[in-house]
Amino acid sequence: MNEHDSELIAGMLENKGYLSAEDQYDADIVVVNTCCVRETAENKVFGLLGRLGQLKKQRPHLIIAMGGCMSQQVHIGKRIKQRFQYVDIVFGTHNIHMLPELIDRVEEQKKQIIDIWPDKKEIIEGLSKKRFHGVRAWVNIMYGCNNFCTYCIVPYVRGREKSRQPEDIINEIQELVQRGYKDITLLGQNVNSYGKDLKDGVDFADLLVKINDIKDLCRIRYMTSHPKDFCDKLVTTVSRLNKVCEHIHLPVQAGSNHILKKMNRGYTREYYLELVEKIRSAVPGVSLTTDIMVGFPGETDADFTDTMELVRKVEFDSAFTFIYNKRQGTPAAGMEDQIPDEIKVERIEKLISLQNEISLRNNKKEVGKTLECLVEGPSKTNANLMSARTRTNKIVVFRGKQDMVGKLVPLRITGSGLTHLEGEFIPVE
Ligand code: SAH
Ligand code: SF4
Known about the structure:
35% of the residues lie in helices and 20% in strands. By secondary structure, the chain is an alpha/beta fold. S-adenosyl-L-homocysteine binds next to strand 11. One of its GO terms (cellular component) is cytosol.
């Protein structure tokens, strides 16, 4: 979501006549787009702002702007005002579209502007975005979150759920397809609740049906899916639509009912396991990935064992693993029984090592298969190789040519590792 916001920021700046600089030392404006889901990300931002302050001493005309989730928090705005007066603009998540105007104002007034809106007044359509990838593109279908999981800051900094009109989404995708994009990822904090705030009764499954009809679009992805809202209609819909890829990111967060309840996730371990079964029998070969947290307040050894057991049972293809981190203003931050750091670290190490074992094993099972892959460009790790993606969202590196970019090709999988597969191109007779 944040990376996509950065595409919007870059697009608006280019529209205003700016060009992207090689690095911050060569820039006239630096926009820091922040995340506050965890404390480490926040600390990095303060470090970066400190370095930018030094840079501004050498380049006084430099404009420093800070936006994103972190800026949206009142206490952060106060801290910037007191300690980082050289930051010219602070904007939030609901007024990103105002950035060009704020730049004009700061150039005129030459004093710090802090402009944070409490919520999104309306969805602004038609803003230009600079896409960072050539073949894949992100498309927001909704903003905000209504779920209030007790550990999570997102609902406080992104506001309540607001869905875009289906026509606006379709138009954006059609335009992207005309420009050569093949693989679209629909974005929302909880895509399964798309449309609940719209008047015409369109839900996420209906939206997928409409998008599946877009000519020349190859692949549809979506994230994130909340398990509690993954209804039977959606399972059937994703199983029958040919462009919807066989990959579901389904964050479980924890494997113990006691912790799931304290997290306010709205489902039980049994419900989650049943949903996984339902999805696997409806969508053969589906890849499931997840987010898991350890060290939530009150997590006992038995709770953690439940999480490990669930991971062993489901055999996710990969998982983003997190150490629980207190976020100011969330209910969990005030809960008793916060878990000591040593235990959190011990648990996450065990979890990562288990998940790595499973990921390696699952990837190995792909060897020998021939898979339809979409070629994305040169490999990030080896410039002599090309990188492609399977429908199940696995990266395959192979020997190929630049003119294959954007094409669907069959690749025979010849090797596997933790994060990617190796393959060879099979020319079609
Ligand atoms: N809307 C998505 C994810 C949003 S945040 C969902 O519901 O799954 C991305 C991930 O960050 C979450 O899935 C969670 O695992 C992690 N996360 C959120 N708040 C956290 C916190 N306080 N400490 C540690 N991890 C956190
Ligand atoms: Fe945060 Fe829960 Fe909303 Fe995801 S669903 S953004 S974890 S509150």
